[in-house]
Amino acid sequence: MPALRINMRKLKDALRLKFEGGQSHQQIARALGISKGVVTKYVGLAVAAALDWNTISLMDEATLERRLLAYPRPSDSYAQPDYGRIHRELARKGVTLTLLWEEYCAEVGDEHSADNPVKPWRYSQFCENYRQFANSLKRSMRQVHRAGEKLFIDYAGPTIALVAGSQEVGRANIFVAAMGVSGYCFACATPAQTARDWLGATAQALSFYGGVPQLIVPDNPRALVTVADRYEPVLTETVQDFARHYGCSVLPARAYHPQDKPKVELSVLLVERWILARLRKLQFASVAEVNDAISPLLQWLNLRAFQKLPGSRCSVFAEIDAPTLKALPMQPWEWADFKTVRVQMDSRVEWEGHRYSVPNALIGQVLELRVTAHALEVLHRGNRVASHMRSAEKGGYTTVTEHLPERHQHHAQWTPERLVAWGERIGVACAATVQKMLERQPHPEHAYRACLGLLSLSKRYGDARLEAACTLAWSLGTCKYTHIRDILLNRRDLLQASATPEWTSPAHAHVRGADYYQ
């Protein structure tokens, strides 16, 4: 371990005792509690610098240190690395200072010649020089971020007024997102800061970046977090569904700790300075107008060059962050509501007054509904067991026949149209009879069993006889099932119409005749 540098105040006392007091090195060392060698060293440095006590007494400690301990200047014989590029390369996954030092040595070796006699720094000095460079950057650059790993999101403090005529009708809130390595910035306006606004704006940001990071880091908004615990924050079901859809994680920062997400804090500051400040004198009537005004300014901000590092946010994003992002899902994300329900005895669950069927084996079970703008999904232990298009009909039913018990599935197939179609396959008279049977009841379901009984007669007597029986029943002015059944049972449908002329009574002695009654 290297020896600690002597305190300059004690060094000044040692020089005073030597030059003004004339004491020996041994006496000075014993009086000040330092070694004799240290006294000899610094007295020699003072003599070499042509310093006496009168000159030393007028110097402050910093000036004396510069005169005695001149810092070595980097030799021109060493090749100076591009520490800005090295700092950027360290953000890539798997890149280390050792690897970058080896590449630096290889580059110096390739450039070495008689006209350019330079040599590389040793590894220890290379690392020390880099650390000094990193310490000269802003504090926000000291955090270690991996390419494509984190996306930081937040809302800016200032808002933009929405004006209709001369009256303010609302405020546009400004959402800001920033990538961890490049700081590539996204901003858009939303009507408020509800959960729908947070997640909708984040979905827009992911589309803007063209990919998905591993981690999304918001602060602790109540719209997204149900339990703002320091160690294990609990997100809402909708936020967890958002993360599952995009295949990433959402990890809120600690409450009241903006240093956990410095990238977006800096981006918020830049958006306020370079975008919102330029829009302060303009008037907007809607959130869409605000977004149209933000878009070109946002592009300019991302193309603006860094002050100390090479490139811009846009170029660094394209080079480092973009290649490591995961692909966006095929389907766009939709807002989803969640509700816990219990399956009723009719194999249905209810949402907003409409009832949807689920498999009958789940009757009595507690399930979870995931409801989007157009669809309703039924989840059992995380697995989808049913899916329906949403219906706004209050008191209505949406049923999948396969969800019902087997004995109910046949009943579910009974509809007036289907019964009439079954009758048409037998004949015109049969279809007309079925239609008449349905119409004569106050509700069509009252005639379902009679219609099915009528149609079932074809299995016993055949389609031709049933059609003939229906024709005979129509001529008699009836359409009851029992009447048509009796016609078939008595074989009246098989009797042919007589071709003989009208019947006349034969002559007989016992017949009195019509004249008898005159």
From TrEMBL:
Integrase catalytic domain boundaries: 139-337
GO molecular-function terms, A-Z: nucleic acid binding
All residue ranges annotated as the HTH IS408-type domain in the record: 11-90
Listed InterPro entries: HTH_IS408/IS1162_type (IPR017895), Integrase_cat-core (IPR001584), IstA-like_C (IPR054353), RNaseH-like_sf (IPR012337), RNaseH_sf (IPR036397)
Family as reported in the entry's similarity comment: Belongs to the transposase IS21/IS408/IS1162 family.
NCBIfam families referenced in this protein's UniProt entry, alphabetically: transpos_IS21
Annotated protein name in UniProt: Transposase
Protein source organism: Candidatus Symbiobacter mobilis CR
Taxonomic lineage of the native organism: Bacteria, Pseudomonadati, Pseudomonadota, Betaproteobacteria, Burkholderiales
